[in-house]
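Listing 4. Sequential folding, example run.
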Amino acid sequence: MRRALEVAVTGPDVGADEPRVAVAGEDVPVGAVVYGPDGTEVAVGRNERETTGDPTAHAEVLALRRAAARFGRWRLDDCTLVVTLEPCTMCAGALVLARISTVVFGAWEPKTGAVGSLWDVVRDRRLNHRPEVYGGVLETENAAVLRAFFR
């Protein structure tokens, strides 16, 4: 989760030994990381809707796209997605379709959350895949970043 929070605040290209510099921009600071079956970082994403003008450029979708490209396949079974904010319906659907095994998120999103708050897309028994979900991880830290952005 700390890596996802780092991506949210500083951007995806910052490594652990580089100075933390806030990313300028209008995108909501949400970061996502896909970890492979062995626990290694496969791909990261940060919200880029404002930057790119793409309504689907949510952190989770970008991380999933990059992970799929790296693996050369769309099935990301046995992978874990860690994201700083509870996924929306679009992202929750993408997680199910990508066959992500585990979803870990930070702050709950009562207005648009689709992994337990407003909806629970990923646990819908009518779907053919249901990942494990762990919510509220480092919730205080993740929520603080979002509150600061919206001030």
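-- end of first protein; second protein begins --
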Amino acid sequence: MSVPGGTPHDAGPGIAVTVDAGIGTIMLRNPAQRNALTRTMCRSIAEAAAELDARQDVDVVIVRGHGGTFSAGVSIGELRDVILDDDGATDHLTAADRALGRVAKPTIAVVQGHCMGGGWQLASACDFIVASEDASFGITPAKLGIIYPRAGVDRLVALVGPATAKYVLMSARTFPARRAQSMGLVAEVLPAEKFDDGVHLLLGELQARSSYSMQTTKHLIDRSGDPATEPSELADAWKQAWAEMAAGPDIDEGVAAFLERRDPQFPWQPGGQRG
């Protein structure tokens, strides 16, 4: 596949995109700045997310950082270019965030080391974050005199509530992984010494599940959490999903496999994007 923004070895800021055994990986690479995000990297992430979502040989998409750390946030030298750009309004970080949010397949942020500022917004755009026990998290716009992008603030409030969101943003403190998990910033924390094994196990479990069930559940949860979704639209989405489930092949295979005490082989394949 093409590698938008990819960089060989440690040539400079960019991303590397790979597909291996059904897992599509977006690897953040900016070794000189602990994988800090540049405008080019944000644009490349958006392109890679769409490309991996379209590939039939990709079951799950993960985002992780090169060299044992996720991301130190937005590159300070490109801060204005990333969140404002020449027109003073374009936010390339949020564009990458939205592109990840549009991926129909399961998306997981795999976090080791530092996950700071814009790095957390990018990670939180995935369906959930899995972190190493020695990872650390911080959202620090108050240290820079800026406002965190609205997409990140809205998601933070939805995850932790208004009071804790204010505490995280105003204090600009750094939190260890277990504390971040207790606050709702992280879904799962794995022992550092067994991190790769734990991630591999989780990805294998996801690949064994029904793609219909995972993608449809994700779609319904995202629609439910979108303030632009009217109640009637959400009701219609649920009605459509229920009809697809009844007519689809996975329910029969799931029941048969359970009764026969075997692993299911779910046959459903996505037939296109949902509205």
